[in-house]
Amino acid sequence: MKSRRDFLQKISATALAVPFLSSAKAAGSSFYEEPYEGPVLKVAILGLGSYGTRVAEAMRDCKAAKLTGVISGTPSKIADWQKKYGIPAANCYNYENFDKIKDNKDIDAVYIITPNALHKDQAIRVARAGKHVICEKPMALNAKEGQEMVDACKKANVKLLVGYRMHFEANTLEIIRMRNAGELGKVMFFQGLSGFRIGDPGQWRLSKELAGGGALMDIGIYSVNGARYMVGEEPVWVTAQEVKTDPVKFKEGVDETITFQLGFPSGVIASCLSTYSMNYLDRFFLNGTQGFAELQPATGYGPIKGRTHKGELNLPHKTHQTVQMDEMSAIILQNKKPVVPVDGEEGVKDLRIMDAIYEAVRTGKKVELG
Ligand code: NAD
After folding, report:
1. Ligand 1: which of 94, 136, 166, 169 to mutate, judged by most atoms within 8 Å of the beta carbon?
2. For a FRET experiment, which of 116, 172, 222, 240 has its CA 20 to 30 Å from that of 216?
3. Averaged pLDDT, 300-328
């Protein structure tokens, strides 16, 4: 027979479970705290590799975005993903036939997560099929290619966004708020350190043809992009130096380590390092006349740790790709303006700087950015 004591025990177990569930949810899920009734972005992922898998897993917790389709050259992967994410056969495509998404009402946007050299042509095909494009970083191999993507998406009247997940990260946004509020005084200096030790020498990241370069294209881009959103200005000049300790692994055109400096209109300078030869290198540091802000790790999958002259930043970790995809849904479907842009023009700005860094390495000269 059920006693009152049993009943009370059940009640208190539930009472204990509820806060646990809600804090677990806060730690890992969507930024929408209220029940969501807005529009949902239907997304196909193109390229079912390691990052594509991470995005698909994170999208399980999205409220405003849903994985509805896949595009892949590997039939066995398509079958696996169909089972795992409940994707109907009608929403599965390969690299030859994916222009047919044009006629598929279950797909609003395609998220391109393939090696860098493939982004441009794939993005243009998606745009021509009338679907919005979300493209991984670097959006292309150089600024000229990036601009072609921007133009193609404009012409097709679709949006183009770049997978800059850090632009939605809470501690990063808090530092940007502090800077804008003048809490650091006048910003004077930024340091960006981005690197990891790359393994398998046969991977596409070490192929000039597929990656478009080396560490700078893959990981150094975080310091390029971070310098811009942490300082809040666009650089006007670049200097850079390259060091190569392993010319067998890092062939001609594949950079191992580059240091670069950026000058900004207000007089801020940035000093950055991009490398494929050091682990645990992921740090942003911003200094002003009245204070500092630091992120370390600054761009990893999280938690991101922040500290300023006022103390620790402890904004809770939420899976970056979940927040990113919910926010991107709002940008695409509801014209939301993010604090830090993630559009194609933003991607081209980074590529112009990266083109200039490579030119500065080649010529040994300071490169002016008009
Ligand atoms: P990956 O090698 O794990 O996956 C690449 C996918 O592309 C694979 O499924 C592969 O089969 C497919 N592919 C299609 N054509 C290919 C070809 N010609 N050569 C090789 N692979 C081909 O790579 P990844 O780590 O998933 O990176 C993919 C993209 O995502 C890159 O642009 C990378 O910079 C970006 N990325 C972004 C983040 C981020 O945090 N925003 C993290 C990792 C990777």
Report:
1. 136
2. 172
3. 97
Residue 32 confidence (pLDDT): 64
50 CA → ligand 1 middle, Å: 7
Structure tokens at 298: 């600054």
The pLDDT of 6-15, averaged and rounded, is 36
Looking at the predicted structure, is the pLDDT value of residue 19 above 50? no
Query: What is the model's pTM?
Result: 0.92
Helix axes 143-155, 119-128, angle to 10 degrees: 10
Which domain, by its residues, includes 292?
A: 166-315+344-368
Question: Is residue 131 lining ligand 1, measured as CB closer than 6 Å?
Answer: no
Shortest-distance Cα residue to atom 1 of ligand 1: 49
Do residues 181 and 278 share a domain? yes
137 is catalytic: yes
Residue whose CA is at the smallest distance from ligand 1 atom 15: 114
Question: Of the residues 222, 229, 276, 358, which is catalytic?
Answer: 222
Kindly tell me if the per-residue pLDDT of 39 is higher than 70. Answer: yes
State which H helix or E strand residue 275 sits in: strand 269-275
115 — phi, psi (to 5°)? Answer: -55, 145
CATH code, domain with 95:
3.40.50.720
Which residue has tokens 């083109």?
A: 355
- The verdict on whether omega for the bond into residue 265 sits within 30 degrees of 0, i.e. cis, is no
In this structure, are 158 and 172 located in the same domain?
no
Q: Does 137 sit in the ligand 1 pocket, CB within 6 Å?
A: yes
Model confidence at 256: pLDDT above 50: yes
Average pLDDT over residues 74-99: 98
45 Cα–ligand 1 center, Å: 11
Atom of ligand 1 at shortest range from CA of 119: 32
Whole-angstrom CA distances from 146 to 34, 150, 286 are 37, 6, 29
- What confidence tier does 31 reach under pLDDT thresholds 50, 70, 90? low
Of 104, 134, 162, at which residue does a domain stop? Answer: 162
